[in-house]
Design a protein that fits this description.
169 residues; mainly beta; 1 helix
C-alpha cells in the first residue's frame, strides 16, 4: 500500500488532456472541483464543495444561469448519453436557470431541463427531467423521464415510468 500526503488518493487523470471550459462571467468557487470535459456557461454559479467531473472525456454541460449549491456532485461517465438542446450527445446536460441544491447527486447519463430544481440530497441517475420540473428533498429519480412541469415530492422514489407519468403538476 502506498502512502499519500493528502487525506485521499489522487483523483483519476484525464489522459486526453481535456480541460474544462468556463465562461468569463461564471463563478467557480476556489474550493469547488471542475474537471474534464465540462462546459460551464455564462453566469453559472458553482459553490464551495461542489464536484463536477466529466471523466474519460464524457461531456458535461452547465447551462447559462445554472446554480450548483454547496456539496453538489455531478458525475459524467462514458456509458450512456443524453441529447442536449443543441442536438449534441452529453453524459450530463444541465439546462439554463436549473438549480442543484445542497448535496444533490446527479450521476449521468442525465438531462436536467431548463428551469428545473433538484432539492437537497436528492439523487438523479440515468434520467431525464423535462423543463420546469421540481424534485423536492431526499428524492430518488432513476431510469425514467419526468414530464415537463411535474413535482417529485420529498422522499419519493421514482424508478418506474408509470410513477413518473402520474406525478402532480
Amino acid at each position: 500500500m502506498g502512502r499519500y500526503s493528502t487525506a485521499a488518493p489522487p483523483a483519476s487523470r484525464h489522459p486526453e488532456g481535456i480541460e474544462p471550459t468556463v465562461d468569463a462571467t461564471a463563478y467557480v468557487h476556489p474550493f469547488a472541483q471542475v474537471a474534464g470535459a465540462v462546459s460551464v456557461g455564462a453566469q453559472v454559479s458553482v459553490a464551495p464543495g461542489v464536484s463536477v467531473r466529466a471523466d474519460q472525456g464524457s461531456p458535461c454541460r452547465l447551462g447559462p444561469d445554472a446554480s450548483l449549491w454547496e456539496g453538489t456532485m455531478v458525475q459524467a461517465l462514458v456509458p450512456g448519453r443524453v441529447l442536449g438542446d443543441d442536438q449534441e450527445p452529453y453524459a450530463v446536460w444541465v439546462g439554463a436557470r436549473a438549480t442543484l441544491a445542497h448535496k444533490a447527486i446527479v450521476h449521468g447519463p442525465v438531462y436536467v431541463g431548463d428551469d428545473c430544481f433538484v432539492g437537497f440530497r436528492s439523487t438523479i441517475f440515468n434520467a431525464r427531467l423535462s423543463p420546469g420540473c421540481i424534485v423536492m428533498m431526499h428524492a430518488l429519480v432513476q431510469d425514467v423521464e419526468i414530464p415537463a412541469g411535474k413535482l417529485v415530492p420529498s422522499g419519493a422514489i421514482i424508478t418506474d415510468q408509470d410513477q413518473a407519468d402520474a406525478l402532480p403538476d
